[in-house]
Write a structure and sequence with these properties.
about 80 residues; 5-stranded antiparallel β-sheet; alpha+beta; about 30% helix; globular
Length: about 80
């Protein structure tokens, strides 16, 4: 498990052995686990943002799209 992105609103945790990512929406207190083709699509979407435009605002906007409707509330046990 590796934190590969961390902003005020989001964190992305990579699980290389599972070829997966967990998207954590800090302000919305929800998360989304993606693997396989969805994780690959996320990686490609981030890589497709031009380097000079790849900032916290553009990445967070992309993560908003990925988490919309699919992320689940984080439950503490």
């Amino acid at each position: 498990m590796n934190v590969v992105y961390n902003s005020t609103q989001y964190a992305i945790v990579a699980y290389p052995a599972r070829q997966a990512f967990e998207l954590v929406d800090k302000t919305g207190k929800r998360s989304l686990f993606v693997q396989g083709s969805v994780a690959l699509g996320l990686r490609e979407a981030i890589d497709s943002i031009p380097y000079e435009d790849r900032d916290e605002e553009s990445i967070d906007a992309l993560l908003d799209d990925y988490c919309a409707g699919a992320a689940r509330p984080i439950a503490y046990h």
